[in-house]
Amino acid sequence: MVCCFLSEGAGDFYCSGNDLSTFTKIPEGGVQEMARQGAELLRKYVRAYIDFPKPLVAVVNGPAVGISVTVLGLFDLIYATERATFHTPFTQLGQSAEGCSSYTFPRIMGPTKASEMLLFNKKLTASQACELGLITEVFPDTSFQSEVWTRLKAYARLPPQSLALSKQLIRSVEKERLYAVNDAEVERLMERWTSEECFNAVMSFFQAKAKL
Question: What GO terms fall under cellular component here (predicted)?
Fold first, then answer.
C-alpha cells in the first residue's frame, strides 16, 4: 500500500498555472458556459485535495504559478529546490483566489503576508516561502533530488494506516470549512471569468507577452 501521494513537476517548472488561452476559445454556450464548466472542474479538483486520505507531498522542482501554489495549503509536506518561486498573480489577471488559499494562506502566514501574495501578486522565493511557513524545507538545487528522495523512501516505510489516521486527526476538523471556502472561491471566480475587467486583463497579458 502506498503511504502518500506525491506531486512533482517535470522539466524546469513545477507548474506554470492555468492555460489562459481558454479565454480566447469561447465554446458554443458562450462565456457563461465556459465559466460554468471551468468552475465545476475547479471545484472538483480542489475538493479532491481536501478529501485525499493519505499524506500529500509536494516536490517543487522549479517555479510554481497559480493553482499549483494555492493548493499547497492543503498539502502535508512541501519540499522545494532553492530556485523555486511561488506566484499567484490573480488580481493582475482580473481574477481572485482559488484552492482554498483565501483561508489557508492567512492561517499559515498571517493576513498581511497573505494579502501581499493574493491581492498584490508578490512572488516569493523558496527561502521566503519557507520562512512564512508555506513550504517545509528548501534544498540546494544540486542535491535536491537525492536528498528529497532519501527522505521519501524512508517515509514510504512508515505504517500507512497510522499515517492516514494521524492525518485524519489533523485535517478532519476543518473539512467542512474548506468545502465552504472552495465553494465561495469558485462562485467568485465564475463572476470574475464573465466580467469585462477579467477579459481585458487577460487580453492585456497576451499583448504584453507578444511584445517580448
Answer: mitochondrion; peroxisome
pTM: 0.89
Q: What is residue 10's three-state secondary structure?
A: coil
How many other CB atoms are there within 10 angstroms of residue 109's CB atom? 21
Which of 50, 75, 52 is CA-nearest to residue 185?
Answer: 50
Which CATH number do you get for residue 169? 3.90.226.10
Direct distance between the N- and C-terminal alpha carbons of the chain, in angstroms, rounded to an integer: 48
**CA atoms of 170 and 140, how far apart (whole Å):** 30
CA-to-CA separations, 153 to 3, 77, 159, in angstroms, rounded: 10, 14, 13
Rounded (10°) angle between helices 30-51 and 175-193: 160
DSSP state letter for 15: B
> Domains in the chain: how many in total?
1
| Cα 76–chain centre separation | 13
Q: Residue 183 and residue 205: Cα distance in Å, rounded? A: 27
User: From CA 75, how far away is CA 93, in angstroms rounded?
Assistant: 26
List the domain range (segments joined by +) for residue 18.
5-210
